[in-house]
Specification:
By secondary structure, the chain is an alpha/beta fold. It contains ten helices and eleven strands.
């Protein structure tokens, strides 16, 4: 069975009370070079991937200034500008890339302002629909980092604020500083360390964007469910995320149009409650 690929099959999610997107998004980290550094080996393929995900109904794209760095944002604009009216682009600031394998936090207000304004230029936007603090900086009080984003929002440069790589306590602290509409944490069928954070998102209707959504998709339960649905294990773990909570907005990424189509096809796979429980219990 070949399932159709259309992000609309996942249904929709409301973000911030005024943005509604299909609940299968796209993560644009991997349209960059090896190690998420520099240009991709095939620029035309990277741009074709971005155009293809829009053809498949995706209207939520996640990126960050540190992807490349700056490469992912630049390619999004090159491939997709002028943007469709319903496209929501989310980007992030607060991580530096001094070299391969390095992701160093920088939550200083002056850095976050420069990062946001750089993202605005690269993405060719007047206002970023969703801007997330990429990671709290242990050297900078969270109130100072988020205070910079609040000021940018007040200036009309950010529409909504989100946080990424946070604990439940950090999320609660952030909410005391400013309205938070999204959380982006590592979460997948075999790594559910952010379960408590997801539960807060469910309770308070925040969008939860799981990064690394399809890692370690090779458990026996996943393999069995994949065989039953004539689907790949990667598709099954994406379908599992969609079934896990209506607040989950998966953002699988790739630099290949064909892989993007396969990932988005997972939106059409409906798992039974027993299948969801079996996958959860096998990890």
């Amino acid at each position: 069975m070949t399932v159709p690929a259309n992000a609309a099959a996942a249904g929709t999610i409301e973000i911030g009370g005024d943005m509604v997107v299909h609940r299968m998004g796209f993560g644009a980290m991997r349209v960059t070079g090896p190690g998420i550094l520099g240009d991709p080996p095939d620029l035309d393929q990277a741009r074709a991937t971005l155009r293809r995900v829009l053809e498949l109904g995706v209207n939520f794209i996640d990126t960050a200034d540190s992807y490349g760095p700056e490469v992912s944002e630049r390619l999004i604009a090159e491939a997709l500008y002028p943007y469709p009216d319903d496209l929501v682009i989310a980007t992030k600031g607060g991580l530096l890339r001094p070299g391969p394998g390095r992701w160093d936090p920088d939550g200083r207000p002056e850095h976050l302002r420069a990062a946001c304004e750089g993202s605005l230029r690269r993405l060719r936007l007047d206002r970023i629909p969703l801007y997330q603090l990429h990671r709290p900086d242990p050297r900078v009080p969270l109130a100072e980092s988020l205070g910079a984003l609040v000021q940018l929002k007040d200036e009309g440069k950010i529409r909504h604020i989100g946080v990424s790589n946070v604990s439940e306590d950090q999320l609660r602290q952030a909410q005391r500083i400013t309205p938070v509409v999204s959380v982006q944490n590592r979460y997948n069928a075999t790594d559910r360390a952010s379960e408590a954070v997801l539960e807060v998102c469910e309770l308070e209707q925040l969008a939860f964007l799981p990064w690394a959504p399809i890692q370690q998709a090779d458990t026996p339960a996943v393999a069995e469910v994949a065989k039953r649905h004539d689907a790949s294990p990667r598709q099954i773990v994406l379908a599992w995320l969609l079934a896990r909570s209506p607040q989950v907005l998966p953002i699988p990424g790739t630099g290949s149009p064909e892989h993007a189509e396969a990932n988005i096809a997972a939106a059409s796979i409906e798992l039974s409650l027993d299948e969801v429980d079996a996958i959860a219990g096998d990890t």
